Amino acid sequence: MSRPFDGKLALVTGASRGLGRAMARRLGAQGAEVIALARTTGALEELDDEIRAAGGPQATLVPADITDDPALERLGLAIHERWGRLDILVNCAAHAPPLSPVEHGGKKDLERTFAVNALGVQRLVRCMDPLMRAAPQAVAVFPADRVNAGKFHSVYEASKAAAEVFARAWAAETAQANIAVLRPAPPAMDTALRARFRPGEIRDALPPVDEAAAGIVDAIQAALEG
């Protein structure tokens, strides 16, 4: 029986946990050949086991940091040489800096947060745009975060705002191309990132991350078919 993403190639960043892991698992279970990128090798191997247990194809595991320009360039070249195109890009890589007043934001935290959350989007676009243009129809997903915001979140919120600018501009620049750029804004979810911001929160009251992943995967399918 055919599945919605049979024959599709999907790159998912931040795939070791949270929304990225849920997206990679769901896409793989529905037939996509997943390229899973994250820093933690063990978590990526567990993800591959979960995808195959759900009947999906073996994933390609890329233990790398999204801030590593040469690694992303090598990945882009490897995708070009092996597949010649990229059908789906899902960027869930995110860094949660310590909460602090604006005047106390440290340089190291600021640089790391922007490197992952904002510049990571531009790096991915630079490396993957040609591969996505080579697909008959492609979809890129850059989830926004509208719930982890407000006082003491300035470093994180500013980095996510910059990421939205990159994603929104690229969407406009590819409006006449074969690339659909989705910018969903999931609700508060039970993720490690949120737990770092709100360690005392009762997490059982939060919706599971799989619910948000299911909605985004449905949107990807609709964009590919539309």
How are the SSEs placed, and which strands pair?
Layout: E1 9-13, H1 18-29, E2 33-38, H2 41-53, E3 60-63, H3 69-82, E4 88-91, H4 107-117, H5 119-133, E5 138-141, H6 154-173, E6 179-182, H7 192-197, H8 209-225
Parallel strand pairs: 1-2, 1-4, 2-3, 4-5, 5-6
Helix pairs in contact: 1-2, 1-8, 3-5, 4-6, 5-6
Explain the overall architecture.
The protein has 226 residues and is α/β, with parallel strands linked by helices. Helix 6 (154-173) links the parallel strand 5 (138-141) and strand 6. It has helices at 18-29, 41-53, 69-82, 107-117, 119-133, 154-173, 192-197, 209-225; strands at residues 9-13, 33-38, 60-63, 88-91, 138-141, 179-182. It has a 6-stranded parallel beta sheet, with helices on both faces. The chain has one domain (9-225): NAD(P)-binding Rossmann-like Domain (Rossmann fold), CATH 3.40.50.720. It is built from 8 helices and 6 strands. It is globular and about 50 Å long.
